[in-house]
Design goal:
Length: 297
C-alpha cells in the first residue's frame, strides 16, 4: 500500500516534472525567440548607428564645404565692394569729364554760331562792297563821259570869265565821295556791315560823312576826335563836297598829332569855318588848324 502510494506519488512527481520541463522548454524557446529578436534589433540599431555616423560625417563635410563657400563668398563680396568703390570713383571722374566735355561742346557750338554769324556778316560786307564797287564803276563811267564831254568844250576862258563847275560833275564827285564814305563806314565803323548805310537816317550827308571819318580815325588810329556841328540845314552838293574833303585832310593831321580833340564846324557869314580844337575846346597850336571855306552853293 505504501509502495503504491509512493509509486503514485512518484508518477505524480514525474508528471509534474515533465510538465515543468515542457514549460521550461517553452520558456527557453520564447527566450531564444526574444533573444533573436533582440539581436535583430541590436543589429538594426548598429546598422542605424552606422548610417547615422555616416550621415553625421556627410553633414560635417557639407558644413565644412558650406563654411568654405561662405568664406569664399565673403572674400568675393569684399572684392566686389572694393570694385564698386573703385567704379564709383571712376564714375565720378567720368561724370566730371562729361561735364567738361559738355561745356567744351557748348563753347564750340557758340564759337560755331559766332563763326557762322561772322561768315554771314563777311558775305554781307562782300556783297555791300561789291555793290559799292559797281556803283563806283557806274559813277566813274558817268564821270568819264562827262570828262569826255568837257574835253570837247573849247579852251577855258580867263579866270574872270571862267564858268562855274558843271552841276553834273559836282553831283558825280559828291556821289563818289558818299560811296567812299559808306565803304569806310562798313569796313571800319559799323558793328554789322549788313546794316543800312549811314546816310539812310540823316538829311545832311556832309555832316554824316565827317562824323564817319572821325569815327574811322578813332577805330583805326585811336585818336578820339568828336565832331561839333554848328551848321543849320543841309549843305548843297558843292559846299558839302568841299567841306568833307577839307575835314578829311584836317582829321589826317589830327590823327598824327592829337590824342583827343574836337573838330568844330560853323558858319561865319558866307564862309564855313573848320577848326581843330583840344578836348577842352581851346585852340590847338598847329598850322592849318583853322580852315575857312567860301560857300559856293
Amino acid at each position: 500500500m505504501i509502495l503504491a502510494v509512493a509509486l503514485g506519488l512518484a508518477v505524480i512527481v514525474a508528471v509534474a516534472a515533465v510538465l515543468r520541463v515542457r514549460a521550461l522548454s517553452r520558456q527557453v524557446a520564447e527566450l531564444h525567440s526574444r533573444a533573436d529578436g533582440a539581436e535583430a534589433k541590436v543589429a538594426a540599431g548598429l546598422e542605424r548607428e552606422v548610417a547615422l555616423e555616416e550621415r553625421h560625417t556627410a553633414l560635417a563635410a557639407e558644413q565644412t564645404a558650406m563654411e568654405t563657400s561662405l568664406q569664399e563668398q565673403q572674400v568675393e563680396r569684399e572684392r566686389l565692394e572694393r570694385v564698386l568703390r573703385d567704379t564709383s570713383g571712376e564714375v565720378d571722374g567720368l561724370t566730371g569729364e562729361l561735364m567738361v566735355l559738355r561745356a567744351d561742346l557748348a563753347n564750340a557750338q557758340e564759337a560755331a554760331r559766332e563763326a557762322d554769324a561772322a561768315a554771314v556778316a563777311a558775305v554781307a560786307q562782300a556783297d555791300a562792297t561789291h555793290d559799292d564797287l559797281v556803283a563806283a564803276r557806274t559813277d566813274a563811267e558817268q564821270l568819264r563821259t562827262e570828262l569826255d564831254e568837257l574835253k570837247a568844250v573849247p579852251p577855258a576862258p580867263s579866270d574872270d570869265e571862267r564858268p562855274e563847275a558843271s552841276p553834273l560833275l559836282v553831283e558825280g564827285l559828291w556821289s563818289l565821295e558818299r560811296t567812299r564814305t559808306e565803304r569806310t563806314w562798313r569796313q571800319s565803323v559799323a558793328l554789322d556791315p549788313s546794316d543800312p548805310g549811314p546816310f539812310e537816317a540823316h538829311d545832311d550827308p556832309a555832316r554824316v560823312a565827317i562824323e564817319v571819318e572821325a569815327a574811322a580815325v578813332r577805330e583805326e588810329v585811336g585818336s578820339v576826335i568828336t565832331v561839333d556841328w554848328q551848321v543849320d540845314g543841309a549843305l548843297p552838293a558843292a559846299d558839302g563836297l568841299l567841306l568833307v574833303r577839307s575835314a578829311q585832310e584836317l582829321l589826317a593831321v589830327a590823327a598824327r598829332t592829337v590824342e583827343e580833340g574836337v573838330l568844330a564846324i560853323a558858319r561865319d557869314g558866307d564862309d564855313l569855318v573848320v577848326s581843330l580844337l583840344d578836348a577842352d575846346g581851346g585852340a590847338v597850336d598847329l598850322d592849318g588848324s583853322v580852315v575857312r571855306l567860301p560857300l559856293v552853293g
